[in-house]
Amino acid sequence: MSEVLADLPFCACIAAGYLDVLLVLTVCALLLAGFPAAFTLAGTALLFALIGWSMGVFELSYLIPYPQRIFGATTNQVLIAVPLFIFMGVVLERAKIAEELLDEMAKLFGSLQGGLGVSVIVVGALLAASTGIVGATVVTMGLLSLPVMLKRGYDPALATGSIAAAGTLGQIIPPSIVIILLGDVISNAYQKAQLSRGVFAPETVTVGDLFAGALVPGLLLVALYIAYVMGTALLRPASAPCIPAAEIGDRREAFRSALKTLPAPLILIVAVLGSILGGVATPTEAAAVGAVGALFLAGHRTAAGPSKTLIRIGAAALIATLAAGALAGPQGATGGLALAAGAGTLVALAGLGASIFCLLRTSALSEVTEQTLRTTTMVFAILIGAALFSLVFRGLGGDARVEHLLAAVPGGPAGALLAVMAVMFVLGFFLDFIEITLVVVPLVAAPLLAQGVDPVWLGVMMAVNLQTSFLTPPFGFALFYLRGVAPESVKTTDIYRGALPFVAVQIMMLGLLALFPALATWAR
Amino acid sequence: MLDPAGHALNLAAALIFALYAAPLARLAGLAPGLSSRLAGAISSVNTVVGRTVKWFALAMVLVQAGVVLLRYVFNISLLWMQEIIVYLHGGLFLLAAGYVLHVGAHVRVDVFRRVMSEKTKALVDLLGAYLLLAPVCAAILIAAGPYVAQSWAVREGSAEGSGLGLIYLLKTFIPLFAALVALQGVALADRSVAVLRGEDEVAA
pTM of the predicted model, to two decimals? Predict the structure, then answer.
């Protein structure tokens, strides 16, 4: 006993030099206990700050900027896009547009081999583009399409695999919330990396750049998923049977009703994305207009009679007014055009008012704001927790250690990148994309970028990598979500077996990105 | 040297953390009604706050869309409109954090949690409330004291003259965030104690 006590100061002395490492290990262990992640991150960091301070290896003055960091989260223009995009996504989700789309796509393509599987992936991609929240997409798709696919005699593995894979598309296909967060983190790291190399007029990288970078890989993934489902259906027809034509009814009828449902949400998504990618609007501006568009769409679906007409006219007036603005150019509308635009604005306001009124009456809007509040607060609480973690980690010398470690990995930038990717892949088994983006990426991005790695390419690689992690059995997040909503008759091993081919597709995509970085960097 | 605002903050913080004694007392079998009533009162305060600020989300959408329309169509930029969005955004997540804790919507790593018994979960929540959540809120209150007090002392306004000039109010959301979360932590602790003592039907 006495020897142990005598050794304590010595142990403590060694521990003092490795407090940053101990902090990371402790945070990982405590996170697994399941207390809300935001407070676990901040609380553990605070504990280590106090331990370090009592050992004389940490200055409490490192914590002074903390309130300023929290304040920064409120004034950051890029982050304001997050609640706006969440709002838009929740409105579209509550408007049950996905349900209707899936129904109509199934009628359109159901009679083809594997048609139902392809519908699931296409709708998943659309849903991903509109909401960008993984859990929500997997759960929605699982509840909607899994029972239908199983009833039609689909192989449970193929059915669950395509649903899980389609659900994870939400993080890669813009405008995804995580790409906005990733864009903010990477752009800060890029500034830092260039300053550290003595570049005092640094280049910038924006969220729009990252959206553009993620677009092609995202769409390629959709194409590869579809190819896999169709290939399986061709080779093993029994695994993906077609719906008998008699049950589908009139194809032309289905086509006509699809023509009525599909265009509006599709145009909305394309317009939002297009205005960001084209550099016309910032993500924040596009998100707000997109959210208003979603309100029009949802209002139009709930309304009946004259208010439905009013909403339709209002939406047309809004589009016309925005078009007038585009016509007028940067000086703004003048003269007659300004008068017309003013009148258009008033009509649009009337339509929007009618939409909001209809949605308030069915209490749909109350549910939308509630869900937006919960998701937004959850994201920003982690941001606040991660800010304290990174202040303490830096104060304990962790930044310098990560930098040295990454420099010591053999193989130069490629080796360091590979090491980071492997660590992130494993972390993806038990941490959420948001946590990894806000805690891990700030630590590793600056050293990697300082070694000359392209920021957009790095961001897209990270996004695809984490998406793969979420699909990988046995720990993948998407698989857990799906297990939660799948009927008992589907075995967990079916879900695992179904996910594996899609994991292979993901790895292929990572390989393609590594070989052809231009897939991500074409727009720069 | 502390000005009145700093003193008020410290006093409020001391009061909040004194409340953390109630669930402990209940754990020891003392005055369970007090702790439970306290938890109920705190939860209803945060619920009122949450149900109010959730409409900030809709307001943000409408004001931001208005900014876009004015700027792109009429070439009018109004700084105060931009600032309203920032205030709504900050108010949304800073003021609602306590409510979101109440409804259990803060994300947890649930790899192990999903196989834990109700009592183990309650134990994690109880320890987390005292060892992680409360200290963090205390640290934010202490660190934000001088930061916010300084902003109040000069009535810190906007960088540009035409703004709303209420930056000091926005900064006040930071200690409010810590206070509301710390309060909800008391309720979380009480609920956990109730489960641990097998009295959770009272809380339900």
Answer: 0.89
